[in-house]
Amino acid sequence: AQRVTQPEKLLSVFKGAPVELKCNYSYSGSPELFWYVQYSRQRLQLLLRHISRESIKGFTADLNKGETSFHLKKPFAQEEDSAMYYCALGMDSSYKLIFGSGTRLLVRP
Amino acid sequence: GAGVSQTPSNKVTEKGKYVELRCDPISGHTALYWYRQSLGQGPEFLIYFQGTGAADDSGLPNDRFFAVRPEGSVSTLKIQRTERGDSAVYLCASSLNGDEQFFGPGTRLTVL
Q1: Interchain pair A43, B105: CB under 8 A
Q2: Contact by Cβ (8 Å): B5, B91
Q3: Measured between beta carbons, which residues in chain A are less than 8 angstroms from residue B50?
Q4: pLDDT for res A56
Q5: Do B42 and A102 touch (CB under 8 A)?
Q6: pLDDT, tens digit, for every residue of A14-73?
Q7: Mean pLDDT (whole number) for A94-103
Q8: SS3 annotation, chain B
Q9: Which of B20, B25, B28, B42 is most buried, judging by how many CB atoms fall within 10 Å of its CB?
């Protein structure tokens, strides 16, 4: 069965520290992976997707098919990065997304 | 332009009642999705429309849940005989031809 696992409910770091939000997936087909972010009192929005291979707001994520992982990384966290982060798996041309349970990132001053 | 909008933002109802939740997608977006997000969980897929038709309703939990999109734009999620377990935030998203999904603010449903 398709599944997305985000093992950490909360990740707390100090400003300027590196951040890695973990995401593992289970899917037998060819996956599309996404990271969505929800800032306080805002709606869910796309942060980045693996096929675009972009760096958004300093965040990057590399799809590792061998380890079935898509961890989100940023070398120097900023306070404005504090938010809920959801990893999502797209199947069947990405119309259907399977979300992980989310990780709350808290960046302390 | 305006993003996806959902009404109402909050809905409180009693067990056994019928509710309708509305979603206005971004103009021109052909694809529309409904998700449900329970407390402490990520969004869970319910149903996907391409145009007027439900292309995939495999996520609807049971036959109390039904959704329509009669003119290929606005969609309504209908829940009959509501139960306390239906309490959640119901999210709507739209996309252009299955590309990036843009989410609405959600409707928080509370069943007492």
Answers
A1: yes
A2: no
A3: 95
A4: 87
A5: yes
A6: 999 999 999 999 998 888 899 999 999 999 999 999 888 788 899 999 899 899 999 999
A7: 89
A8: CCCCEEECCEEEECCCCCEEEEEECCCCCCEEEEEEECCCCCCEEEEEEECCEEEECCCCCCCCEEEECCCCCCEEEEECCCCHHHCEEEEEEEECCCCCCEECCCEEEEEC
A9: B25
